[in-house]
Each structure stands twice: as C-alpha cells, then as structure tokens.
Amino acid sequence: MPHDVEAVVISNHRLSSEYNVLALAAPAIAQETEPGQFVMVKPSESADPLLRRPFSVFEVLRDDDHVTGLSLLSKRVGATTARLFEAEPGERICCLGPLGKPFTPVDPPSTAWLVAGGVGLAPFAMLAEALRRRGTVTRLYYGGRRAADLFYLDWFERAGVELVLATEDGSRGAHGRVTAPLEADLRRNGRSAVMYACGPEPMLAAVARLAADFGRPSQVSVERIMACGLGGCYSCVIPVREGSRSHFVRSCLEGPVFDGAAIDWDASH
Predict the structure, then answer these.
(1) Domain ranges across the chain
(2) For 41-61, what is each residue's pLDDT tens digit?
(3) 3-99 falls under which CATH superfamily?
(4) Distance, CA of 203 to CA of 209 (rounded, Å)
(5) CA dihedral angle for residue 144, residue 147, residue 149, residue 153, rounded to 10 degrees
(6) Helix or strand or coil: residue 73?
(7) Helix (H, G, I), strand (E, B), or coil: what is residue 187?
(8) pLDDT by residue (tens digit) across 189-233?
(9) Is domain 111-224 classified as CATH 3.40.50.80?
C-alpha cells in the first residue's frame, strides 16, 4: 500500500531558471520505491492547485546506510511545478507513493540503453544504480533543446554510464533528436541491447518502433496526465494491444512502465 505523508523539504537545488531537484524527507516512501515508480505531490498549505501531480522518483537519499528521503527532478511549466521550484527547506509537500509498476533491470550479458528526453531523465538515476549493482553495461542516450538543458552528466559518468548526447541546436553532442544516434548504434552493435525510454510520447513511440525493427525489447515510461494516481479517475488511460485489437488501460496502475511493443502508438493520441 502507498504511504501518504507530509514530507518536509530538505533542499531545493535549482539547476537552471526552469529545472530543479527537490529533496523531500519521505523515508517510508523512499525505502519501498523501485526504479520507474512515481509519487503524487502538491504543496501542503495550498488549495491551488487542488490536485496532486505525478513525478518519477529521481533519487533515494541516504545518510550512510539509512534511507532519509527521495528527490524529484522537475521542470517549471505550470502551477504545481512553479510552487515546487520555489519551495524552501522546511516547507511541507503532500507526497503519496510509491505508485505504479517499475522498470525491470536486466542482467549481463544484456546491455541497457537508456533513452531520455528532457525531464524524462528522472527515473534513470535509480535505474542506473540498479543496473550497476547487477554489473550490467549501461549507456544513456540523452537529448534536449540545448546543452543547458542537459543535467547530471557528471553523476551518470561517475556511475559508470556511457553518455551519448544530442541537442536540437547542436550545442552539445549530435545535432538533432536523440533517436538518430540511437538508430545508428542499433545498426552497428545493438544485438545485446535492451532499451528503456522516458520522455515525450513521440520519442517513446520512435524508440519502441526502432526496438521492434531491430528485434530488441523495450520498456517505456509514459508521461500521462494523472488526477489521482490510484486508478479512480481514468484520466491517464493508454491503448495497449491485445491480439489484433486494442483496449485502454490505466497507466497509473498498469504502468507507467510498459512493454514498448504492447502500446498501440497509432491510437495513443
């Protein structure tokens, strides 16, 4: 069962004028969270916004061997994310979780290729740690609009993750979308790769289709609007294939992580 707590803000690291990493004292949630799971949050002392919003758990925070809390990677785009961007240590955040189905880390000799766009980086810090514990060779394909939108590169390098970067303006890494170097590497040496993706839905669809084209498995974490996170509101449905037909499932319960080949991408818009 998920925990519903008022988590105290430990710190708020503002990465840029849009992005921040918010650390919350929520050890009961953090110690049960698996890579890819999410929490529903909102500022405690506010009726605006009324509803909570979903965020992938970015990190599980520890003091020596003790779990102390979790962090969230956020981009300021609306009322909730603006409040989270402005939050100060000592403030309280309503936090419900862990929720949803996680990623399934693979073991060697498979290799893990993580594909992130923007805040789609969020679930991959925990996943990278889980893969490192298994000894799985891991590569991160990470794309953004510009170099200033790429974060935590040193962290992933210290975790032993190979980086492949792309920016739409060509200011860092390949010029264009991150799926271009991904496709090139699949053609060269992708026989052992298992793909994991999180980011905008067109990117997820492209990764899932590339994986299918090259006969590789994929796991994708979808970003759907959620009003409750518990399956009661049906605001987060997504079409999945069953034989020759499709039906809708709630991504907060059946996901957010899905087999990329199971989603009916043509009917998902």
Answers:
(1) 3-99, 111-224
(2) 998 876 666 789 999 999 999
(3) Translation factors (2.40.30.10)
(4) 10
(5) 100
(6) strand
(7) helix
(8) 999 999 999 999 999 999 999 999 999 999 999 988 888 899 999
(9) yes
